[in-house]
Amino acid sequence: MSAKRNSAIAAALLAVVTLTVGCSEKEQVIVYEQGKYQGKPDTKPWENAPADSLHTTSTWTKGDKTSWEHALNSRTQKQNEYTRVE
To answer: Of 46, 51, 56, 62, which residue is most buried, by most CB within 10 angstroms?
Structure first.
């Protein structure tokens, strides 16, 4: 067999395999039941643990809504251009 014929056969086999794999994808359909939420329930933002102190300057106590709101307000003020101008 010649090298051209071998490469043509290899290219044809590669094309067949590629098309076969591309057509074998499973259908992704969600079965929805009326009135049933199937996702993960959300938690309150202040019930999460604060981020590590390397990437943030504000921390709060986990589960304390007041300290979370204070941290959020201080972060917002640090982004305020009017208070940053000297």
So the answer is: 46
pTM of the predicted structure, to 2 decimals: 0.46
Q: CB atoms < 10 A from the CB of 50, how many?
A: 15
Contact 21, 32 (CB under 8 A): no
Exposure string (b/e) for 19-41, b if CB count within 10 Å is 16 or more? eeeeeeeeeeeeeeeeeeeeeee
Cβ burial of 52 (10 Å; 0-12, 13-18, 19+) is exposed
What integer pLDDT is reported at residue 66 of this predicted model? 92
List, as own/partner pairs, every contact residues 48-56 make where C-beta atoms lie below 8 angstroms and the sequence separation is at least 24, other chains included. Answer: none
Reduced DSSP (H G I as helix, E B as strand, rest coil) percent helix, strand, coil of the chain, to 5: 50, 0, 50
Could you read off the pLDDT of 6-50 as tens digits, one per residue? 888 988 888 888 877 767 777 777 777 777 777 788 888 888 887
